[in-house]
Amino acid sequence: MPTNTLGKYSFEVDSEGFFTVSSEWSEDLAREMATLVEIELTDEHLAALNFMRKDAAETGATPTLRRMQSVGGFKIKELYQLFPGKTLKMMAWLSGLRKPVSCV
């Protein structure tokens, strides 16, 4: 497995850059990663990312946007605003999870 290094952090990733060892993630690392995609993480961003991590730990799968809305209570439109572009993919990457199955 390739290892990425960002600042003082090192973490194992798959061929697409998604974490393979979720426990290597931290909020501080997420903040560093977010600067690479020009996002400054706020409490709103972190609430979504932490929900994703908690849900993935419980279900064994990276949650979909529909699940973020139905179970987590997040509004999809707001998630698109918080994480512009490839929203779910970026959220999974920033939360230290594997690439969502629904993403190509």
Automatic annotation (TrEMBL):
Subcellular localization: Cytoplasm
Gene Ontology molecular function: any one: transferase activity
Top-rank EC class of the record's enzyme: transferase
Cross-referenced Gene3D superfamilies: 3.30.1420.10, DsrC-like protein, C-terminal domain (1.10.10.370)
InterPro entries in the record: DsrC-like_C, DsrC-like_dom_sf, DsrC-like_N, DsrC/TusE
Taxonomy, superkingdom: Bacteria
EC identifiers of the protein: 2.8.1.-
Alphabetical UniProt keywords: Cytoplasm, Transferase
A Pfam family that the UniProt record links to this protein: DsrC
Entries under NCBIfam families matching the protein: dsrC_tusE_dsvC
Name of this chain's protein: tRNA 2-thiouridine synthesizing protein E
